[in-house]
Amino acid sequence: MGEVTDNNQALNEREQSILHHVVHNYIQTAIPVGSRYISKHFESSLSAASIRNVMADLEELGFLSHPHTSAGRVPTDLGYRFYIDYLMEMQQLGDDEKLRIHQQLDQTNDADEMLRETSKLLGKISHQLSIVTSPHLSSGIFEKIELIPIASSKLLVVISIRTGIVRTIMMEIGVEVRRDHLDQVGHLLNERLSGLTLHEIRDSFVDRVRDMQSEQTGLIRLFIESVDQLFTDSKERDKVLIGGTKNIIEHPEFIDPKNFRSVIELIENEDIIVHLLEKHDELQKGFVVTIGTENKDETTKEYSFVTAIYDVEGVTGRVGVIGPTRMNYSKVIPLVDYVAQTIAKMLSA
Amino acid sequence: MGEVTDNNQALNEREQSILHHVVHNYIQTAIPVGSRYISKHFESSLSAASIRNVMADLEELGFLSHPHTSAGRVPTDLGYRFYIDYLMEMQQLGDDEKLRIHQQLDQTNDADEMLRETSKLLGKISHQLSIVTSPHLSSGIFEKIELIPIASSKLLVVISIRTGIVRTIMMEIGVEVRRDHLDQVGHLLNERLSGLTLHEIRDSFVDRVRDMQSEQTGLIRLFIESVDQLFTDSKERDKVLIGGTKNIIEHPEFIDPKNFRSVIELIENEDIIVHLLEKHDELQKGFVVTIGTENKDETTKEYSFVTAIYDVEGVTGRVGVIGPTRMNYSKVIPLVDYVAQTIAKMLSA
DNA sequence: TCTGAGCACTCGTACTCATTGAGTGCTTAC
DNA sequence: GTAAGCACTCAATGAGTACGAGTGCTCAGA
Question: Which of A16, A348, B166, B315 could in theory staple to B140 by disulfide, Cβ–Cβ 3.0 to 4.6 A?
Fold first, then answer.
């Protein structure tokens, strides 16, 4: 049980203790917890009536709420927040689970494939929706580019990043280009772009190739036109992988079909999630938890997001879970954290 | 209205007509249709009682069934089958829809991206779950292979098929290999494998490279070990894209949460779908419809599958939809068919 | 001033029971 | 073969009731 700290002056010891019990119990059982229950099981020194008084105070302060008069108390988003920040004790991840994670992710050396596996796995273990983004290559350091002619008028561009991640883009080129011309251009690009981040390249590409125009005008012009496609994290390409629907709908909150629809909505409408992940990214912290209305979005007001960053030599992405605000944070947070670290290790290997 | 043919001797004209009305109406409204309703709206020359007699016959023959005594009639799988094969009239696809399909799929020239768009689009237009498989490259004709060293110990293998489709595979190679060695091996492989199908290559690879062993033993051995990974349609890689969950759950059959779960199960457990698609593939017909229990799988006994093949110079894949057996076949079939044709065109362009 | 026992009150849940109405099946007459 | 009549079935709906968990408030005691 989390120790009662003096981190927050708003609540005295007893209030903190009772809040702790309410949140903890509600997370476990999903049924509103009553004063009598707490008196019986946790705080035998206090009567139900006294606990009711404290609960009334907690409710007034905004930490608890009431579905209706004759129901027990339920944490508010603020209640969860306090619980996570001051009361909760992280639960260590079991060795078996660690092993399982390693085994699952060790199966493949294809990055995309591994991220897909991660998504599945995280959903299964956490019993939540899992989210995994592909790494934002923009801040990755350009290693080299290869230009491979395909069929008649297509060009496969392979850009590799120092960490060993590659991006392949199929480009339509109007005409057939001789192989030695391609090699020549590729060679020059490699020379001039080496060591820069993709981000830097995108911003300065035109300047850097200006003098090359004379030699291979057509091809260079094509590259200039496609610079966004080549060197930016397009939202189309670097999608969010969402998985574990089967697991999340087992939660009791989904007996109500309305919630059902809302979760489907969430899955199909990736924009909402992408947007939220961007906000998490901005915070630049190891892991981020946003609870219910904290993420100011109507459709996700009953969901919490737990995400952690993974970082491979400056190239970062996020993994995490989405679930009802009634989430087992003490288990989920360490799990997400550990998975993020594991991915980073795998990708840099 | 579909003309009454003599294709099936089992039913006389009146029976066919009434079966037609029942199926058609039930598809539209999802409510069991009663004898009185048919008499009023479609067959005013016959009384409800007479229609009841015919319905009783149709039920005995297995084309209709009864949810309970006081409900109207509902088609059985056999009823749907007869309707599709003999009674139904295909509905022409509207010009606006054709336009929409073209516009949506014309946005990108990346094959994967386009298939993803197809999946979304098909779900939206059909109001069903959409399924799109990536092309089975096995029967594609090898055009060339490129070997690109990545970072220290990785190799990106790019295999391109005559149609302009490429497959990229990341291979782990224990040691660093000199660029000219790679080029040499690549060159030899291109020479020896040219014009074969991937399928043929997989089966004969060892023989074809046996004499090369002396020069680049390590690298060749690696290729021999990875031959499956390189030249076979792995189920991992060539996944099925499933989309449109949001659309399908609007159907009245999904007020029951049980069905809800079954559809989620279906989405998460792609194996079931993959298996079924294989069966469709074996039939080698343009489009295939399997209804409910016709696909002998317990989990899909209340779903129908409509799929069509797309063929790009021998490289084929499938697109289609999954939905409740009560599906608007007359609209869905032409749609799926048209989308398949459009994909083929786009991919061969 | 804090604590806790007592009690009235609220409100969601579960259950029963009667009513309604759509639709059938059967019988019978034409 | 057709259709009118009628009894029967059964899901759906809604009202009524009992139950019980839990609160809020009051008041006495430490």
Answer: B315
Strand C atom within 7 Å of B66 CB: yes
Structure tokens belonging to residue B27: 């598809």
CA of A64 vs chain B CAs: smallest distance (Å): 30
Q: How many other CB atoms sit within 10 Å of the CB of residue A72?
A: 19
Chain D: positions less than 7 Å from a protein CB are: 2-5, 8-11, 20-26
Cβ of B56 < 7 Å from strand C?
Answer: yes
Q: CA B320, A266, A117 angle in degrees (round to 5)?
A: 70
CB B168 within 8 A of CB B157: yes
pLDDT digits (tens, 9 = 90+) for A148-194: 998 778 899 999 998 888 899 988 887 788 888 888 899 999 999 99
Listed residue (A54, A62, A60, A64) closest to A17, CA to CA? A54
Could you give all domains of chain A from N- to C-terminal order, each with its CATH number? 13-87 (1.10.10.10), 95-136+238-348 (3.30.450.40), 138-231 (3.30.390.60)
> CA-CA distance, A196 to A186, in Å (whole number)?
16
Query: Among residues 150-189 of chain A, which lie with CB inside 8 Å of chain B?
Result: 150-152, 154, 156, 158, 160, 162-164, 166, 168-172
